[in-house]
Amino acid sequence: MKDSASITSEDDSDPRVRDVLTRPEELLTTLTVDPADPRRLYRQIADQLAQFIALKRLPPGTRLPAERDLAEALGVSRPSVREALIALEVEGRVEVRGGSGVVVLGQNGKPRAGQDVSPGPFDVIRARWIIESEAAALAATNATPQHLQQMKLALMDMRSERTHSPKATAADQRFHFAIAQASNNVALLLVIKQLWDMRTGDLYMQLESHFTGEDIWAKASEEHSALMDAIASRDADAAREAMRRHMKNAEVRFASGWRSPTSE
Fold first, then answer.
1. Contact indicator for 207, 67 with CB cutoff of 8 Å
2. DSSP 9-42
3. What percent of the residues of the chain are helix, what percent strand, and what percent coil, each to the nearest 5?
4. Alpha-carbon gap, residue 195 to 62, rounded angstroms
5. Which residues of 111-142 are buried (b: 16+ CB within 10 A; e: fewer)?
6. 183 near 138, Cβ under 8 Å?
7. Alpha-carbon gap, residue 195 to 172, rounded angstroms
8. Burial letters for 23-57: b for 16+ Cβ neighbours within 10 Å, e otherwise?
9. Which end of the chain is less congested by CB atoms within 10 angstroms, N or C?
10. How far apart are CA 139 and CA 133, in angstroms?
11. What single DSSP character describes residue 187?
């Protein structure tokens, strides 16, 4: 049975994929991770892949080994590999093509500015699961009518969008900031704003771009509606669980199979 979360499909019909790495074991046996390396794990993986592409002068169109194989070779989680591939895509070194795999764009990409210490998208989601769920529980106790109105207006703006867009992301951010403000804890608000700076960064947004569509946005809007209902009902436990469910669903979506460019 095929693994639905694997990047590489057995369908090689995409004419844009001109070459396949003829000796994938050469790459897989070259990759290593060093626990003592101060770089983020995904950054270690990304840098090694970039170095291999440059040293072997892989031509554009060369398809890299499957996400599953890279994770097994390194002994790391598939989300870490996925974050590495997204980092390389942001830098213009590779392109993720749903149904065709990850292919090389060129040997050189955009240079990175300094040492990259930014957390990956999955770390951001997991941190939000912890912090924003408690903010939601506090909001259920402390929210004023003005806070609830801010959430309602933000949700209306979210629903007016059929899929992810800059306007939709801005409305999403306003919704979560209204909850943070309703927690009545300034420290929580500041931490959540920092997390949202990461959530709207290049790495997170590039990963999210592979999981957009009307169906996904509709589900996300429903999750926000349930969250607001719990807060408006003054049910702290329900609000906490609604936020946890929303964050967990986002993580599951980001770990699922890459969507085809033609997917809705």
1. no
2. -S----TT--EE-S-HHHHHHH----TT--S-HH
3. 60, 5, 35
4. 36
5. eeeeeeebbbbbbbbbbbbebbbbbbbbbbeb
6. yes
7. 13
8. ebeebeeebeeeeeeeebbbbbbbbbbbebbeebe
9. N
10. 10
11. H
pLDDT bin (cut points 50, 70, 90) of residue 148 is very high
The candidate with the shortest Cα–Cα distance to 92, out of 80, 79, 81, 108, is 108
Output Rg (C-alpha) for the chain, integer angstroms: 20
| pTM, rounded to two decimals | 0.82
Least confident of 67-71, 113-117, 118-122, 189-193: 113-117
- Is residue 24's pLDDT more than 90? no
Nearest to 260 by CA among 2, 11, 22: 11
User: What is the pairing mode between strands 94-97 and 101-104?
Assistant: antiparallel
- Cβ–Cβ under 8 Å, residues 135 and 242: no
Tell me: pLDDT of 112 over 80. Answer: no
Adjacent-strand bridge partners of 20: 63
> Are residues 131 and 176 in contact, defined by beta-carbon separation less than 8 angstroms?
no
Q: Is the per-residue pLDDT at 115 higher than 60?
A: no
In the chain, DSSP assigns E strands to 19-20, 62-63, 94-97, 101-104
Would you state the structure tokens that stand for residue 120, as one six-digit string?
Answer: 């990956």
